[in-house]
Amino acid sequence: MLSHKQAFTCSGQPEKKALLFANRETSDIKRKHTLMRFYSRSMLFLLSASSCAFMAMLPTAHAEDTSTFTKLELSASGTTDAAPDQLTAIFRAEARNKNAATAQQAVNALVQKITEQTGKNDAVQLAVTGYDVSETRPDKDPAFWTATQRLSLKAQNGNALLPLAGQLQANGLILESLDWSISDDKRESLLLDAEKNAVAELKKQADTVAASLGLHVVRFSNVAISENPIIRPMPMMMSMARSADAPAAPSSTAQTQHVRANAHATILLGP
User: Fold this and answer.
1) Which of 38, 43, 169, 263 is buried deepest, with most CB atoms within 10 A?
2) Distance of alpha carbon 44 from the chain centroid
3) Cα 14 from Cα 63, distance rounded (Å)
4) Does residue 217 register a pLDDT over 70?
């Protein structure tokens, strides 16, 4: 039979072994973590070193030295001609009266009548625009009020708009302007052609000047393109055939219009 001291010693041996085993496992885990951190830092260092070496191998970008080139400044223009495809008539409805309300009612009734009349013609686009009322006080005559409103009518051909314009004049509208123009859709396409012609003219001039100097065109450094207002020729007035009881219609001939673009460039010339 074991004594009390011996029994205590024997029963404590397994606990000491478990403690030693746990401490050993903890030490192993710490060593593994330390090694993993070391390997991670080593890999990051290697990657950074490789990246730096790769970047060092790349060619360094330098600003181009243009001091050895001859700089040439040129301007040119390009034009595209086209027949207009839109006729616009601007009318003014006007009424005067010593009473402001009466003048406005007269204009409103006239514009309403014209709107209904124009609405029957699908080939004409109507836009009712600005409205104005003002009072006039002459020195000797009584004061009066003037009410006005403007109407814009557009059509793709004169056959649709000109007879209607004559009817509106007969109904009391005042024709302020009658102009042919190029529609926005067609104008964009024509402007692109004009810009191409301007650039082609620039190239032609650059080659000519370079050859006369014994040089050649290296490249175009800066190019700026701008648009010129459309050149509209004065409309040629002509009479139109009409029936005996129809009101006389205004006349206008659609003449060729010019779409123009300007180009300016800095050209570098070399030997």
Assistant:
1) 263
2) 50
3) 79
4) yes
